[in-house]
């Protein structure tokens, strides 16, 4: 036993001096038959049975002993590793697993029934837990994605609520809001196969535009698709990532969620407003604030609300003027503002200060800070105190004196989105903003009377007004008006709904003509109705096309309100032209002259191409319940913002914001 039990074989004093062998080595060598019997002899050198000690065993006896022992060892190992529930034996017996001990000792049924009974109970519990988990998983799988998202949001809101301070503010000093996604954030495939294919095609275009930006210009404001590098216009100062923020909601509504997540991550980690640079208040508001707000309302991700409010607060110093009419340009660090040097004696511009309303109302709602809403409501007050020539709003207003600058009026550049925001303020307030409504319909009447004309061949257009004289030119930007008039037609006073729908359709037709009369089937920046031409650009500096959305925007609204298939056809014509002439290997580019037979690319992929042009195209080939108009209003950069529903229980409180 001593020889076997100890780890080393001790050598008897009588034995000759020999190397020390381990039992394992000896067994191994014997077992493998490699050790000659003679080699073992030194241990058993004395054949005399009477001599004391283990060395007196005979060789055969030793073999038998070794065999018995190894059989025993094998049995033990077999029992440990191969009998059922051996793991428990291992953990319970050898490793003294506390889990096993607790279960067996403190379980409700613990008693003297023995370990077999305990095992049964443990197994039964595991089975029960398993079944419960399966049922829960089944339950989860049966839920619709929206329900799941809503549950996650509710849980998040609950956690946020639990961690808020005494004023009901969260860690970012924002009020806790119960996020509820408005309906139609994503759509479904249209039934008609052709429409479905066309919609898929638009998504592929978005993918090409986005992937190219991601590959060549990630983090820059825009992409140069021909030279395959980043591009930054000075409209955004040192703020970066305009394309990312502008594209967020388009990615979401097209269900490009991997791309949306990458964009979200960039916003979270890199979007920085602490810049010592001058920005355009209008551009930053419509693209960045608008883009962030939409991304928040579509996804419910708090990072977007936080960033939108942070940026909104940075824009507030722009309103520090004697009248409260904001500056066009603002240094985000110093808070010092000024106006464009070219704008009529230091005036602010109607389309710029008049295109803050929708975003600022939502900023007040999401931040709990009424200042945003007060600032834009004050703009209305100033405008309503002023006399308007022929009921029209001039493009220039001096923020110091509160007086109009030059009497230029336009529904295109410098004026356009002011009118759009009057109508949409009313719609976004769930039709409770009566002031906005009246201002819109009065202005539209003045525009119709003073600016709308018909060409000799019957094309309706909206001219520009300069001190009482008409310039018979219509900008590509003005083409948005077809969609706006259609959107407002339903609420038009004095039975004018039908008439306004006709006007909208006529403008859509004129703008379509401006496309079809070019060589490349894409519209010029401005077209004229004088000197013997109709809907054609005559000046070289008006022949370019920079991927603008306005014509397609009008097709989308007209399609929604009429379901006349021609609007989808016209949209498809534009898609084919974009693919043929604007698509390049590194994205989509604008064109310098739409009348030239081959395109000369301007090497810029504008951020509004992803925000607006592709979004409106996608919606043109989607069903009406995708971003339905009774729940969503688009800002001027096509960022959908939810209608702020009236609190029906309180007649004196028209909507949450007010
Ligand atoms: C966009 O940035 C907005 O639509 C704005 O109101 C004017 N136009 C450009 C795109 O053309």
UniProtKB/TrEMBL annotation:
Q: Which GO terms describe its biological process?
A: carbohydrate metabolic process
Q: Pathway it acts in?
A: Protein modification; protein glycosylation
Cysteine disulfide partners in this protein: 479-511
Q: Which Pfam families match?
A: Glyco_hydro_47
Tell me where the transmembrane regions lie: 63-83
Which cofactors must be present for this protein to function?
Ca(2+)
UniProt-listed Enzyme Commission number(s): 3.2.1.-
Chief site of localization? membrane
Q: How does it sit in the membrane?
A: Single-pass type II membrane protein
**Residue span of region Disordered:** 161-197
**What domain of life does the native source organism fall in?**
Eukaryota
Which residues are listed for Ca(2+) binding in this entry?
636
Report the protein's function: Involved in the maturation of Asn-linked oligosaccharides. Progressively trim alpha-1,2-linked mannose residues from Man(9)GlcNAc(2) to produce Man(5)GlcNAc(2).
Q: What protein name is recorded for this chain?
A: alpha-1,2-Mannosidase
**What gene makes this protein?**
MAN1A1
